[in-house]
Structure formats: structure tokens, C-alpha cells
Specification:
Layout lengths: L17 E6 L6 E2 L5 E2 L10 E8 L11 E4 L5 E5 L2 E7 L3 E5 L12
Antiparallel strand pairs: 1-4, 1-7, 2-3, 4-5, 5-8, 6-7
Length: 110
């Protein structure tokens, strides 16, 4: 039986409304706007996460490769590519996009 790395390299192409996202590294402890240190182990509520879009399917309309997206990582499927974890999700599971394109922005910036 041959390992995947023995053959030619195959490019991953996302299908339909699927988006491939690399989860942004955890920042560890955070600070509130008032300066209070919040340890990384604190679990007050379900927390949304930011990730970087690496690929999109041909039916994805509002997200582009290179965008940063906000989503719930607990509801997504994980896949390992070249030893690194990535998430696969539907475009409808993305809550927000951080992008330089400012057509319908909130006025808030990362």
C-alpha cells in the first residue's frame, strides 16, 4: 500500500458552498476592555473563533480566499492537511468576514 506522499501532489479544490479555513492560533490569555486579564482556561460561554480562508467552492458568494472569517469552531468538521488541522464548513455557517472590501461594513476593524 502506498502513502499519499508517494504519488503526485494533488491540489485540493473545495466544492459547492464549502469553505476551507485554517484556525487562527489561540492567543492564550486575553484582556477585557477594562484591562482585566482573562486566562485562556476561562470558559464563560461558547466562544466564536477567527480563521483564515484557504479555499472556497464555486457556489460561495460572499467569502474569498484570504479573508478572515468568524465562526463557531465546535460546529465544524476538522481535517488534517500536511500535519496541520483545518476546518471545513458551509458558507452559511460563517457569522462575519473581516476584509478590505467595505461594501456593507459595521465600522469596526480588527
Amino acid at each position: 500500500m502506498h502513502a499519499v506522499s508517494d504519488g503526485p501532489k494533488l491540489e485540493i479544490q473545495m466544492l459547492h458552498d464549502r469553505v476551507l479555513v485554517r484556525l487562527s492560533p489561540e492567543e492564550g490569555e486575553r484582556r477585557s476592555s477594562g484591562g482585566i486579564v482573562i486566562p485562556a482556561t476561562a470558559q464563560v460561554a461558547r466562544r466564536l473563533a477567527w480563521g483564515d480562508v484557504l479555499g472556497v467552492g464555486n457556489s460561495v458568494r460572499n467569502v474569498k480566499t484570504g479573508d478572515r472569517v468568524l465562526f463557531n469552531p465546535e460546529d465544524q468538521l476538522e481535517v488534517e492537511i500536511q500535519g496541520e488541522g483545518h476546518l471545513v464548513m458551509r458558507e452559511r455557517d460563517i457569522h462575519a468576514v473581516a476584509t478590505e472590501r467595505t461594501e456593507h461594513g459595521t465600522g469596526l476593524y480588527l
